[in-house]
Design brief:
Keywords: Membrane, Transmembrane, Transmembrane helix
Organism: Shewanella electrodiphila
Radius of gyration: 35 Å
Pfam families: DUF3302 (PF11742)
Mean pLDDT: 85
Distance between the termini: 127 Å
Helix content: over 70%
InterPro entries: UCP028770
Structural class: mainly alpha
Number of helices: 6
Protein name: DUF3302 domain-containing protein
Order of helices and strands: HHHHEEHH
Strand content: under 5%
């Protein structure tokens, strides 16, 4: 008689542990999203509950969705805004170098060069 009640209690205990385990596993994408400060963490949480009713078909996609975003780099594998700022700085530096080169090129042209250019263009203009 005691073993019957023990088996029944053990059965209930195992059922509760499995039930809690399934719920805890389905909250993993939401916990990842919270840790990474994901902008859509509420949607991930709701989708996790929906995945319980879809026989867990969308759960792997929730995992991927939660792990794609990181606060320091945003979506994907680039640095996001940081990379844009770096590129803007590089473009600015290149523009300054081009301007310096244009100034140096203008300084290299001597008055003799300018004078010979005007002499060659003057006879053509007269004709």
């Amino acid at each position: 008689m005691f073993l019957d009640y023990f088996a029944l209690g053990l059965l209930f205990f195992v059922a509760l542990v499995i039930f809690y385990g399934v719920i805890a596993i389905h909250d993993i994408p939401y916990e990842i999203a919270k840790k990474r400060n994901h902008p859509q963490q509420d949607a991930l949480h709701i989708a996790g509950w929906v995945s319980l009713f879809t026989m867990h078909a969308i759960w792997p996609f929730l995992w991927i969705w939660a792990t794609l975003y990181r606060e320091d780099r945003g979506w994907g594998f680039s640095n996001g805004k940081k990379r844009e700022l770096i590129l803007e700085g590089e473009v600015r530096e290149l523009m300054e170098k081009v301007e310096q080169l244009n100034q140096r090129l203008g300084n290299l042209e001597s008055p003799e060069t300018k004078q010979s250019q005007t002499e060659t263009t003057t006879p053509q203009q007269e004709a």
